[in-house]
Amino acid sequence: MIYNRALSEEKVRADYEVGLNSPAKSLTGTVTGPDSAGIAGANVTLATLEGAEINTTQIGSTGHYAFADVSPGFYDINATKRSYWSNTNNVTVTPKPQKPRT
């Protein structure tokens, strides 16, 4: 955040902690093949880095997926589809920037 005045240490800490506890709006992406085209019908799983599954979705014809209300943190996204190798990527979800308060 950007302010038009100096902030106390307590105000900076409070704003930081609000950001850590705010859910992100969504986590989105697209599962693609070697030709960069979206892969329809894949299953996409969102899990913690420790392996605890949070949610699974099956993607449509474009290969696009979305998970709503994901809290800030570190996650694994695993995409699987029959006849394809599975693929896991690490992602970091950060809070959405808030409008400056004056």
Summarize this entry quickly.
With 102 residues, the protein is mostly beta strands. It has one helix at residues 9-21; strands spanning 26-30, 43-48, 53-58, 64-68, 73-80, 87-93. A four-stranded antiparallel beta sheet has the order 3-2-5-6, with no helix packed on it.
Structure characterization notes:
- There is one protein chain.
- The longest helix is centred in the first third of the chain and has 13 residues, at 9-21.
- The chain is elongated.
- The mean pLDDT is 81.
- The chain is built from 1 helix and 6 strands.
- The protein has one helix at 9-21, and strands at residues 26-30, 43-48, 53-58, 64-68, 73-80, 87-93.
- It has a domain at 23-93: Immunoglobulins (Immunoglobulin-like, Sandwich).
- It is mainly beta.
- The strands form 2 sheets. A 4-stranded antiparallel β-sheet has the order 3-2-5-6, with no helix packed on it. A two-stranded antiparallel ribbon has the order 1-4.
- The relative contact order is 0.26.
Q: Could you name the key traits of this structure?
A:
single chain; 102 residues; mainly beta; Immunoglobulin-like; 4-stranded antiparallel β-sheet; two-stranded antiparallel sheet; 1 helix; 13% helix
Strand percent estimate: 35-45%
- Most strands sheet: 4 strands, antiparallel
Stretches with pLDDT under 50, minimum 5 residues? none
In CATH terms, the superfamily of the domain at 23-93 is Immunoglobulins
CATH fold-level assignment of the domain at 23-93: Immunoglobulin-like
Main CATH class of the domain at 23-93? Mainly Beta
User: What are the secondary-structure elements, in order, as H or E?
Assistant: HEEEEEE
